Amino acid sequence: QLQLVESGGGLVQPGGSLNLSCILSGNTGDSYAIGWFRQVPGTEREGVSCVSANGRGRVDFVKDRFTISRDNAKKTVYLQMNNLTPEDTAVYYCAAYIAVVQSSCVITSSVAYDYWGRGIQVTVSS
What are the helix (H) ranges across 16-77? Predict the structure, then answer.
């Protein structure tokens, strides 16, 4: 089994930055694509970014401001979030699925993601 734990969230002012971390543990030997999702209470969960198993493929639904990366040696995936706005306020989740295609990932649907962290709050407010 794979476990994922998010960290790095909190309260930040508009225009500020946060760097979220997703630490993988357990059965990390398989090739996993990793995605970041966020959810506001009362709304549907939406995909933010994903990175493919080999790190070469990325999808970013928050263009330019958010950057996903992974460090396989540290078993950690990061989401660098810059120029944050109040609309970015949400609970952020990292998730993983065992990749069939090593060079791409999907974020338009979460159906493939079998492993989820418990989420971390990001609040952007003056």
Answer: none
Burial of 31 (0-12, 13-18, 19+ CB in 10 A): middle
Closest listed residue to residue 60, CA positions, set 69, 52, 70, 50: 50
Phi, psi of 103 (to 5 degrees): -105, 10
The closest of 23, 68, 74 to 50, measured between CA atoms, is 68
Look-up of token digits 């694509």: 33
| The amino acid at 107 | I
Residues 8-64: pLDDT tens digits?
999 999 999 999 999 999 998 889 999 999 999 999 999 999 999 999 999 999 888
Alpha carbon distance 6, 23 (integer Å)? 7
> Residue 122: its pLDDT value, please?
98
How many other CB atoms are found less than 10 A from the CB of residue 63? 6
- Listed residue (37, 74, 72) closest to 52, CA to CA: 72
Predicted local confidence at residue 72, as pLDDT:
85
